[in-house]
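We modelled the chain as a single entity of 187 amino acids. Its sequence is:
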Amino acid sequence: MSEKTCKYCAMQIPEKASVCPYCRKKVPLQITIKTSNPERPMDILKDYSGLLIVIFLCLFALFYFQLREPESKNIESQEENTSSASTPTSHRPKTPSTGESGILHCGMEYVPMAVTEEAFKAWIRADVAGDRQGKVALFESRQIFFANENARALVIERGVLKSRVRIQSGMAEGSAGWVPNEWIQPL
């Protein structure tokens, strides 16, 4: 037989007693609800929280990589972090090599060309940031000039992501400047 303690006289009394036999005071009944495992709901939450975190991270990564700006918008950072030895040739667009001619094509009426590598990087930074005034300032300071779309160009120097070309036809014939490799199409 189990016992409980009287809260008035501190004597041990039968668990089912409603009155203490020693002090004669009324003792409330203790109701205990027994569960098979009282901590189980928290264990379930802990088990599924790890799974929920993994699902959330997968969804985040999926949306991040699908909604990112195209690789060509980040030419400057790619060039700084990539060497020609570590870039597989299968991932490079087919671009004429040094000494070969190609056609300039960027999808606009005129193709912007940078006089120096620094001006090229500045143009890309302004383009990625959507800084129209920055691009205008580069043009006004004569660091950027324009060639006709579909003008013929000779590749003078070829880099991983950009090449220096000499224009062979159109309004900028004879001028040399830097353009992204993807803008130089084979003949």
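As a brief sanity check on the tokenised model: The chain has a mean pLDDT of 79. Residues 95-186 form one domain.
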